[in-house]
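Private note to self, pasted from the team thread so I don't lose it. Backbone tokens:
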């Protein structure tokens, strides 16, 4: 069972990076808050130059926090999902997208269909490693905030970059993701929960993923409250915890059926 490596604090000064806006500061500890974007200290990580890689070791679930805030409300939902996977002894890898470099899609397909192939032509950022893990994982659980009635910009770019995997079907090549399982977790200040979830699902559906039964959960607080009140609400909301548990459990149960191998060679790709 693995997740993102913990960030440790030493007696020596580190360069701390705000994962929301990129602000940097030197110190033994991260600042109490970001002076640039006003994010809390939980958004800071030590700046590191390690190359993001994957050793091809099999694992069950790829858990993605698609928010711009690694320690925000969506991060809380992702934490709960991680607790449940750990409780069920399911191997997983958890990542907060704002800690990684993912470029926008070059839209090679718009120039020449054959140019949008796997592996992606852009090998200079971190997305090619996520491509490898999407291929190896048995299931994916995506958590997203609601931004303007849809997913976060970071998650949208991440999903745009899966086009090279989806386009394999149009190039008459073997797909790498058909029959895998997906579950979707959404929360936000007010409206847009189901639209956000469906926007995310349509990307995975085009790659042959199967949505787990009751595989979508969305929870909102309400426009009558200020966003300052959201954190305490989500932190103590029992329904958010129960629904997150339900989605994660349903993903795990469907994953155990090994549909990816059972349906191998029997699925007819219908992808736009």
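Design output:
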């Amino acid at each position: 069972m693995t997740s993102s490596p913990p960030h440790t604090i030493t007696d020596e000064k580190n360069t701390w990076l705000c994962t929301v806006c990129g602000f940097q500061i030197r110190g033994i500890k991260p600042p109490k808050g970001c002076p640039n974007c006003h994010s809390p200290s939980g958004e800071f990580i030590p700046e590191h130059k390690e190359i993001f890689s994957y050793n091809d070791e099999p694992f069950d679930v790829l858990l993605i926090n698609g928010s711009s805030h690694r320690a925000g409300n969506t991060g809380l939902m992702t934490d709960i999902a991680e607790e449940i996977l750990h409780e069920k002894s399911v191997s997983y890898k958890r990542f907060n997208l704002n800690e990684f470099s993912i470029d926008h899609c070059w839209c090679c397909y718009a120039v020449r269909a054959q140019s949008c192939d796997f592996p992606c032509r852009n090998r200079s950022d971190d997305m090619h490693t996520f491509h490898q893990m999407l291929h190896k994982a048995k299931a994916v659980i995506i958590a997203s905030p609601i931004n303007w009635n849809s997913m976060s910009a970071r998650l949208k770019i991440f999903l745009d970059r899966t086009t090279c995997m989806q386009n394999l079907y149009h190039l008459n090549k073997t797909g790498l993701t058909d029959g895998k399982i997906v579950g979707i977790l959404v929360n936000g200040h007010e409206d847009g929960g189901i639209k956000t979830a469906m926007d995310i699902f349509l990307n995975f559906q085009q790659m042959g993923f199967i949505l787990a039964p009751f595989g979508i959960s969305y929870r909102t607080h309400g426009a009558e409250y200020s966003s300052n009140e959201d954190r305490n609400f989500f932190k103590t909301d029992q329904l958010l915890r129960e629904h997150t548990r339900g989605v994660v459990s349903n993903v795990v149960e469907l994953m155990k059926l090994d549909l990816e191998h059972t349906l191998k060679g029997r699925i007819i790709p219908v992808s736009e």
